TrEMBL record:
Keywords: Acyltransferase, Lipid biosynthesis, Lipid metabolism, Membrane, Phospholipid biosynthesis, Phospholipid metabolism, Transferase, Transmembrane, Transmembrane helix. It holds the Pfam family Acyltransferase. Residues 21-30 have a biased composition (Basic and acidic residues). It comes from Momordica charantia (Bitter gourd). Residues 1-42 are annotated as: Disordered. This is Lysophospholipid acyltransferase LPEAT1 isoform X2. The keyword Membrane applies. Residues 180-295 form the Phospholipid/glycerol acyltransferase domain. Pathway: Lipid metabolism. InterPro entries: LPCAT1-like, Plipid/glycerol_acylTrfase.
Length: 382
């Protein structure tokens, strides 16, 4: 459900003409028949695309040669903890699905457009049950997956001299400082579970998510904004408009869900911060930045250069998983930042990189596709 509100405006890195294969050369970018050449090409790729490189015990694509001790741990986990986690995890999912179904019975969803409908605008006991059980069960799911404790650090904003004589002025100030969106770096699909447990915000998701069994109704209860990512029409402008309206609504109404946005538009290995898209900053509203880290010793939880099935299986096999969260103060844009969304996005990005000790990278989703295609031996088309 990571947000991809705008198309990237840069092209994948181009090769020198002298390095391009001839028209009759159908050899893949990584030649499987030559381990030496493949190793050299792999190192070159890792050097060009560092935000997407896996550095854990399992290696690139999670297919590295493992020591016998690691194979023994995997075997033990497959026979013991994995079946338990699968059964309990499915039970939690079915339980929350049933809760969402019951709470939405005989209640028409809110419809902003023909393609956008949600139950996030419900009031009363129905909404309270959906939110609080959703937060509790999301944390329970993380516990089942091995996140027995989560380290959370709150950055305290510097003290400012404020008048305490006018209560009305303070209330207006609090309203103006209320964030409409949560901004976070994007490392894994596990980011979504954490933010659900923390604040239960709305996400941007592919339109197909709404039709998935079990998950579809849950996404509507979250108030997801659906987008057809494969479409290259002007639809993205409509999605940006819906997102901006939701953000402004959250600023004005404390009971309205905030938008959860990943402005990088894709995942990284957790060490870098990619360029931010401006969709999250078009509303000119304050944002609440989060930084997520997944420390590891064996299996890295970043979802990079590895299939979803393999990643989830290895996640289940890891007995203990770790998550560190840094919550920054609400970022209130200046007038200059309000007038220039790119400036607003870049300033928030630099702040997050500084506070999270992250490296800034100029590459993004387009380059990531080139990297993954090369790893899979697929020649990129220029």
């Amino acid at each position: 459900m990571a947000s991809e509100l705008h198309q990237l405006r840069f092209d994948p890195p181009q090769s020198n003409s002298s390095d391009e294969p001839s028209a009759k050369d159908d050899r893949p970018l990584l030649e499987p028949d030559s381990s030496v050449v493949a190793e050299q090409d792999s190192e070159d790729l890792h050097h060009k695309f560092p935000p997407f490189v896996r550095r854990d015990v399992y290696g690139t694509m999670g297919r590295g040669e493992l020591p016998w001790t690691e194979k023994l741990l995997l075997g033990m986990a497959l026979l013991t903890i994995v079946p338990i986690r699968v059964v309990i995890g499915l039970s939690v999912l079915f339980l929350y699905y049933a809760i969402c179904r019951i709470c939405t019975l005989f209640h028409d969803p809110n419809r902003e457009t023909d393609e956008q409908e949600d139950y996030a605008h419900m009031a009363g006991w129905r909404r309270s049950v959906i939110v609080w059980t959703g937060r509790f069960l999301s944390r329970a799911m993380l516990f089942v997956l091995g996140f027995y404790w989560i380290s959370e650090v709150y950055r305290i904003p510097p003290n400012e001299d404020k008048s305490t004589n006018e209560d009305e002025g303070q209330e207006k100030s609090q309203e103006s400082e209320r964030p409409g969106a949560i901004i976070s770096n994007h490392v894994s699909y596990l980011d979504i579970l954490y933010h659900m447990s923390s604040s239960f915000p709305s996400f941007v998701a592919k339109r197909s998510v709404a039709k998935l069994p079990l998950v579809g109704i849950i996404s509507k209860c979250l108030g997801c904004v659906y987008v057809q990512r494969e479409s290259k029409t002007s639809e993205s402008k409509g999605v940006s408009g819906v997102v901006s309206e939701r953000i402004r609504e959250a600023v004005k109404n404390s009971s309205a869900p905030m938008m959860m946005l990943f402005p990088e538009g894709t995942t990284t290995n957790g060490e870098f911060l990619l360029p931010f898209k401006t969709g999250a900053f078009l509303s000119k509203a304050p944002v609440l930045p989060f930084i997520l880290r997944y420390p590891y010793q064996r299996f890295g939880l970043a979802w990079e250069s590895i299939t979803g099935v393999r990643h989830f299986l290895l996640l289940l096999c890891q007995f203990v998983n770790h998550l560190e969260v840094i919550r920054l103060p609400v970022y209130i844009p200046s007038q200059e930042e309000k007038d220039d969304p790119k400036l607003y996005a870049n300033n928030v990005r630099r702040l997050m990189a500084k506070e999270g000790n992250l490296l800034l990278s100029d590459i993004g989703l387009a380059e990531k596709r080139v990297y993954l295609a090369a790893l899979n031996g697929i020649p990129r088309q220029c």
